[in-house]
């Protein structure tokens, strides 16, 4: 990646660092991973399972969010991780801090880590970020999120991810309306590959949702993913 890291911000606003654990969703499910959770989000999904990253009406921002040097985050990954480990950068919405995110990706790339970024797909990544990551797990939000379509579906950003060659598309599905909208979005934007998973924060709700989603996933050619961390540990934070 040909990026002058000295010109990039030297810090990020983070919510938490945790791991090693396992990646719970998508194509890397079950793999050993470290998680870097950034603060801030440009959406407000009704079922969000990490509202402490953005909902300052319910959570204390000074307690839940802190400015952290990129060098400190890199040092944590160096100590906690192993060669070849997966590092998942999530949120909130990481691309709200895109320039600092590039600095972190440059630093972690120097450690030989594989990097996945979880994003809601509303902010284009840019070539400097694309160059440094292994995969974008792009999760556009559907009707069940309660967010108006004009805020959650951004055509330019979705096309940017689709065309970058490093994106998979992972959707949280809450019911039949979401299934229908997902099929239309896939047709409209040519999104592939697609992974679907149920909303849920208990093992029982996740398993029930997966049973419901199995038939439409097979019908449409989508991949079905669990929320493995929920099956293993419920809604425990830092897992």
General description of the model:
Helix 2 (70-80) packs parallel to helix 3 (98-109). The protein has a domain at 5-169: TIM Barrel. The protein is 36% helix and 22% strand. Helix 7 links the parallel strand 7 and strand 8. It is of the alpha/beta class and 239 residues long. The chain has nine helices and nine strands. A nine-stranded mixed sheet has the order 3-1-2-4-5-6-7-8-9. It is globular, with a radius of gyration of 17 Å. The chain has helices at residues 61-64, 70-80, 98-109, 127-132, 149-152, 155-164, 176-189, 203-220, 228-233; strands at 11-22, 32-38, 66-69, 86-90, 114-119, 135-138, 167-173, 194-198, 223-224. The two termini are 31 Å apart.
Highlighted features:
239 residues; alpha/beta; TIM Barrel; globular; iron; metal-binding; S-adenosyl-L-methionine; rSAM
What's the short version?
The chain is α/β, with parallel strands linked by helices and 239 residues long. Helix content is 36%, strand content 22%. Helix 3 links the parallel strand 4 and strand 5.
Tally of helical runs: 9
Number of strands: 9
Helical fraction equals 25-40%
Q: What is the terminal separation in angstroms?
A: 31 Å
Q: Which structural category do the helix and sheet elements fall into? A: alpha/beta
Strand order of the largest sheet: 3-1-2-4-5-6-7-8-9
Catalogue the unreliable spans: none
Order of helices and strands: EEHEHEHEHEHHEHEHEH
Q: CATH topology of the domain at 5-169, anyone? A: TIM Barrel
Top-tier CATH class of the domain at 5-169: Alpha Beta
Shape: globular
CATH superfamily of the domain at 5-169: Aldolase class I
Q: Main sheet, how many strands, which sense, barrel?
A: 9 strands, mixed
CATH architecture term of the domain at 5-169? Alpha-Beta Barrel
């Amino acid at each position: 990646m040909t990026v002058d890291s000295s010109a990039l911000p030297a810090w990020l606003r983070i919510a938490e660092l945790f791991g090693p654990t396992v990646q719970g969703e998508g194509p890397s499910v079950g793999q050993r991973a470290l998680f870097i959770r950034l603060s801030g989000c440009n959406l407000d999904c009704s079922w969000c399972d990490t509202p402490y990253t953005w909902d300052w009406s319910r959570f204390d921002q000074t307690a839940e969010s802190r400015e952290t040097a990129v060098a400190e985050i890199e040092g944590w990954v160096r100590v906690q991780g192993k060669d070849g480990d997966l590092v998942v950068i999530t949120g909130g919405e990481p691309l709200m801090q895109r320039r600092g995110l590039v600095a972190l990706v440059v630093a972690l790339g120097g450690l030989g880590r594989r990097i996945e970024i979880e994003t809601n797909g509303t902010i284009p990544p840019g070539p400097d970020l694309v160059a440094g990551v292994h995969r974008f797990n792009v999760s556009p939000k559907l009707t069940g999120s309660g967010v108006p379509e004009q805020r959650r579906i951004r055509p330019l950003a979705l096309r940017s991810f689709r065309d970058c060659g490093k994106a998979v598309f992972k959707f949280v599905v809450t019911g039949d309306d979401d299934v229908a909208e997902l099929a239309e979005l896939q047709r409209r934007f040519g999104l592939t590959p697609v992974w679907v998973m149920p909303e849920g924060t208990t093992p029982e709700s996740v398993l029930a949702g997966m049973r419901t989603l199995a038939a439409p996933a097979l019908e449409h050619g989508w991949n079905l993913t669990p929320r493995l961390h929920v099956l293993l540990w419920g809604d425990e934070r830092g897992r």
